[in-house]
Each structure stands twice: as structure tokens, then as C-alpha cells.
Amino acid sequence: MSDLTVVEWHAQFIRQAGWTRAVRNQLYRRVNLLRAERVLDVGCGTGVITEEMAARCKGQVIGVDADPAMIAFAQNKGSRAEYRVGDAHQLDFPDGHFDVVACHFLLMWVSNPALAVCEMARVTRPGGAVLACAEPDYGGRIDYPEELPLARWQAEALRREGADPFIGRKLPALFTQAGLSANVGVIPSLWDDEALRAEFEAEWVLMERTLVGLVSEDELKRYKQVDWQAIEDGQRLIFMPIFYAVGRKVNDG
After folding, report:
1. N or C: which end of the chain has fewer CB within 10 A?
2. DSSP code string of 195-217
3. With a threshold of 0.85, does the pTM exceed it?
4. Domain assignment present for 185
């Protein structure tokens, strides 16, 4: 992943959570999170989504992440949620232990997303739910003005870092192969001018850092100005399809 500090990643996770909050609220209701007794957040990072789920239910909530620094950051916030270092490909929990198992912008980053979803399904009880709350698909991104090459740049940067920029379209297959039902939808991230202005600097700071060695400094400066001018002229549009999936584990009995 990009060479950001834990504090910088925490700020990015908060931004990402804001983009998908409305859909997460619906997903929590669909899986009856309020009444869940055991909940697992896989790839929890600094605990932004974990904390949200802990505030929405009375049961035990555990966050797992492979990065010890992020787990330490999450633990220092004093939440009632529990945090553990762990690998999404080999979850250290017994079969059928959780009512709800969730992830948020995780599957694009793991080396074997099929195995990660299988593990999420394994630790979910029969009749329980697996949620992939948000996974992007840069192949469906639309930028206007069309001269902006941001989707192509970001997809290349993600591939360079070992991520899958097209993971969103694969959610139905991943869930079905794991023995889960696959109810998949898309979050249409269409931003207005006010939101574009508010996000502009943070987006470009992240972009400039992730595109080092891939795009020249002169190109970045030029397209940053094109981007800003389009916002000022009321012409800028970004459509980024972010997919979600709700899976149910078949009740054996």
C-alpha cells in the first residue's frame, strides 16, 4: 500500500467511510446488526468502521488487520471493540463463530480475495451474513472533461502496489464460489461542486504520492490545474462505481 503514515491512513479511512455511509446504514439494517451477538470487521485498519459497528450493536465486535501499527492505533482509541492482528486469508476463529462478518475496501488489497471471502464465510454461522461494504471498480470510472487520465493513472498505480483495481465487478463470483448468496449493488459516487472542492486537495495529495515514478511532476501539475479549472467552471464530473455485496450463509439445519 502507499507509503503513508498510520495517521494519514486514518484520515483516508474516515474520508472513505463518508463516501459509503448511506449504503452501510442500509446494509446494517438488512443484516440486523443491532441484534448481532458477535461481529467481525476484517481488514479493519485503524478501526473507523469497527467503531461504527460497535456503536450500532450490543454484542461483541472484533476488528482484525494484518498491520500491527494500525491495530495499535485502533486499540489506543479506548473503544469497547476488540482489536487483533490477523490475516484475512487465515482467520484465527472457529467455524460459524460470528453473526455478521464485514469488510470495507479490503478485497482489492488482499493477494487472494477468493480465499479471504471463503474465510469470512467459514467463520460466519449458518444463517449469518457476510458484507463486502465497498469495493471499487476503476474500469467503470468516468471523468469529465474526458482529457483527464485519472482513472487510468490510478488503476496503474494500484496494480503496481499489488491491488486489483477491478475487484468490484468480481464480487458476485467471489461470493458464489464461497457458498454464499450474492446480492450485489453499486454505490454511484456522483459529487457536486461543493464536494469536489472540499475533497480536491486531499485527493491530489494522495494521488501525487501514489503516482511517484509513474507520472511526471509536470504532467501532474498540468492535470491538477485542468481538474481545478473544470470544478471552477462547473464542468467537472466524477462517477466512480463502488460495489457492495450481501451474502447469506446457508442454514444447514
Report:
1. C
2. HHHHHHHHHHHHHHHHTTTTS-H
3. yes
4. yes
